[in-house]
Amino acid sequence: MAIGDVTHGEPIVRDTPSKEGPTAVLDAVAECAREAAQSAHIRGLAIGIPGPIDPGAGIVHDAPNMTGWNEVPAAALLSERVGCPVVICHDAAAAGYAELKAGAGRGAQYLLFITVSTGIGGALFIGGDLYDGATGSAGEVGHTPISDHGPPCGQGHPGCLEGTSSGTAIANRARAEVAAGRPSSLQGIDPAAIDARSIATAANAGDALALEVFHDAGRALGRAIGGFINVLAPDVIVIGGGLIHAGDLLLKPARTAATEIAFEIPYRRCKIVTAALGTDAGLIGAVAWAVRSFGGVPAGMR
Ligand SMILES: [Zn+2]
Predict the structure, then answer these.
(1) Fewer CB in 10 Å around end: N or C, the chain?
(2) b/e per residue, 187-201, with b = 16+ CB within 10 A?
(3) How many angstroms is it from 202 CA to the middle of ligand 1?
(4) Ligand 1 center to residue 164 CA distance, Å?
(5) Nearest one of 33, 8, 16 to 84, comparing CA atoms
(6) How far is CA 251 from the centre of its chain?
């Protein structure tokens, strides 16, 4: 968890007490906000939260990996603690908004942000602003169908993009192939230690299984991207998340596969780039979202 403030610059960073329930997390956020403000008046606070959420009502329906977050009125509870208006946004939307305002998609009118890490999330920006649909949930690109027979994602959808191309999916596939006796340098490591990073290392050393796993994940990502280009004709697609460190292992097959699905003119018009803001994107995006919601312009964004 990190809290930014629009005037003093340096973020305040704390571990999220994610297993202690919403009250402990919200208390910690409020404490960070007061510390960041240094006794100055807080005009407004925006917070990026893993969804599903209802941004309009300020409610977190469920927050994966955090204990007890079911139908929590997070905006109202934080507002009581900090004494200012509070808006919540999806964490992928916050990261995407940062890339739109200050990162790899700066100035785009039609931007699709895709984050590929343990899961796959995203956010869509139309006319330079977030499009989140009737329920605040639009932009869930990770659950695009890829095939009838692919493995399920964490939500149980058979054959969706997240079930095929996320870091979790890549690790699951490699572990299964190793367990089935497929020759690979990954046979030499503890199965629990097989993750996207160790598979990328093996692939970069020429391991055929690791290369194939990334190739297939990249192709599925690219086919989905080709479809997004056809539906949305974005001017920029920004790909973020931890897996961008795999570089061409993932992105080269993705670019090739995208051309097989996308119409030529919108494909040529669309820049496909990697995110520029790294792990700070969520924080920068939340600051930008606070500015959008409550006014004021931080020094770094003028
Ligand atoms: Zn899914």
Answers:
(1) C
(2) eeeeeeebebebbbe
(3) 27
(4) 9
(5) 33
(6) 17
With 60 as the cut, is the pLDDT of residue 8 above it? no
- Do 32 and 144 reside in the same domain of the chain? no
Burial 282-295 (b: 16+ CB within 10 A, else e): bbbbbbbbbbbebe
- Parent domain of 227: 104-275
Same domain, 46 and 188: no
Mean confidence (pLDDT) of the chain = 92
User: Whole-angstrom Cα distance, residue 95 to residue 280?
Assistant: 8
Give the CATH number of the domain where residue 12 resides. Answer: 3.30.420.40
Distance 297 CA to ligand 1 centre (A): 37
d(CA 204, CA 209): 11
pLDDT in tens, 41-79: 888 999 999 878 999 999 999 887 789 999 999 999 999
